[in-house]
Amino acid sequence: MTPMSPPGVKRHMYLITALILLSVVSLLVAVGTGSVTLSMTELWQAVRLPDGNASSLIVWDIRIPRALAAFLCGGLLALSGVVMQVLLRNPLADPYILGVSGGAAVGALIAITLGAAALWMTQAAFAGAMFSVLLVFGLAARSRHWSSTRLLLTGVVVSAGWGALINILLTTSTANTVQSMLFWLMGDLSQSRPNLWHLLILIGGLAILLSQARHLNALSRGDLSAAALGVNVARLKLILYFSAALMTATAVTVAGSVGFVGLVVPHMLRLLGARDHRWLIPGSLFLGGSFLVLADTLARTIVAPQQLPVGVLTALIGVPLFLVILHRGYRRETS
Amino acid sequence: MKSPLLTVSELSLCSPGGILCEPVSLSLNAGERLAILGKNGTGKTTLLHTLCGLQPVTAGAVSFEGLDLRELSGQQTARLCGMLFQHEAEPMPATVYEVVMLGRLPHARQWHWESRQDHDIVQQSLKLLNLSSLATRDIHTLSGGERQRVAIAAVLAQQPRVFMLDEPSNHLDIAFQIQALNLLCERVSQDNTALIMATHDINLAARFCTHVLLLNGKGGYRFGDTASVLDSTTLSDAFECRVDMIVTPERRLFFPA
């Protein structure tokens, strides 16, 4: 058997097209489902003519912002998951591995304790996330190089520290605030409103990662191999860590710490054959986005009129999915 | 007269443990093939890494056709030197084809996809190392020898001016050792490039290289053409182990006594 035209380009095109379709469908489903049942005609009317009646308010003020927030957040998490897995050369790396979610949670919880408005809560979460990243880098830095092991260990230890602080805040709070704190900790999109900044960070992050996609391919073969292929490894890593941290902090600010998206989505795509980062990166954006949109739609309908935090749903779907993938991967390697 | 392809002058070899060798000077012309020999820990890998810019030049100078290595960008260096590593980091998932295609990275332009020519070069490299049928296999599923052939195919696809090979015969069976080195040497004379290999196999060095750099581990080195450097006294001294020689009609063979 001899190969063949350049392998995979067509297959990758199909994959990306399918993922774009999935994204569109998931957004439509999210806008079309909810506690108030709207017929197709009502929906179309509401989307076309935002005239202030009840159904158009539901669609434009509640469902569309929430669906967009979910898509944005899922996309950001999946993108930074891809980057973290390459940077730390560890398949278990996820966007939160450097303590981003812990720092953000402490920030948000302090804001909740102080009874701050929602706006301040997101600011505090963002500040906490970035503080945690800088802290981890500061502690792990030795000369100008960060070894992955040091970063990983520092991240895990700092996260444990944040965990302790979170527990202190939870146990010393009044029953009223504990409920909203728990929702925040589990990841929740019910209060989320995306704004232009979030979108800019998503687009900017995507552009940066795509511009470095071939270098990411080289980096996933190891630091030395990448350097021998002419990649400026120190600079590339700095760019990647910074982009990933910013994207994760943004996602956490929008929705709290939603688990599993950043861990599972890149692995699913690699198993589907998208290992070249020029496909893996856009693929992760679409799959991560639609995964979270669908999970959130379930979260708000499954026990309606009650709502579940979306983080619970991503874990509920993510855990079995991840186990299946691991099992399949194991069989593939040993066969 | 044209300057040699590679000139090394008064280059210090340092490891975290200290200075490995007196400053090294040598030059290599197009078409020449250099073997670096020496005991474990004498600085063979350090020298290769320094020559291709992976370790900073602390004292002395390295230049390619008169261009100082320190003035070259990473991408320029990668077009000049193709490095084959002794140990590869534990790889992330990728197919054989994708790994060999990475060899074309130094020739890539930002935002450009691989050209028809890149694909042709990759397919030819795969074919030369009998890897065509493995092109779509995941690198994780390959044996050690197959992975080494993938790495050699990648460095061939890189089309460097100087091949820098750290233990190229690692994991290869004897047939592939000869096939791979024949291939690399043919490539060197065809394209008027050069080759440097660090190896423990004195006989491969004797058979395939025109020049030898022998690091004796006591801070000294000998550089010269293969016939003049390789003899049993020098080798016995450098390896601190008696090395004997048999002369056959075709070549000289060295073995530990």
What features would you describe in this structure?
The complex is a heterodimer of chains A (335) and B (257). Chain A is mostly helical and 335 residues long. The longest helix of chain A is centred in the N-terminal third of the chain and has 34 residues. The radius of gyration of chain A is 21 Å and the shape is globular. Chain A contains 14 helices and no strands. With 257 residues, chain B is an alpha/beta fold. Chain B has a single domain, classed as P-loop containing nucleotide triphosphate hydrolases (Rossmann fold). Helix content of chain B is 33%, strand content 26%. In chain B, the strands form 3 sheets. Chain B has a 6-stranded mixed sheet, with helices on both faces. In chain B, strand 1 and strand 2 form a beta hairpin. The longest helix of chain B is centred in the last third of the chain and has 18 residues. Chains A and B meet through helix 9 and helix 10 of A and helix 2, strand 6, helix 3 and helix 4 of B.
Number of domains of chain B: 1
Straight-line distance between termini of chain A: 21 Å
Helix-strand category of chain A = mainly alpha
Q: Please, what is the CATH homologous superfamily of chain A?
A: ABC transporter involved in vitamin B12 uptake, BtuC
Question: How many domains comprise the coordinates of chain A?
Answer: 1
CATH architecture of chain A: Orthogonal Bundle
Radius of gyration of chain A: 21 Å
Mean pLDDT over all positions of chain B: 93
The assembly state of the depicted protein chains is heterodimer
Uncertain residue ranges of chain B: none
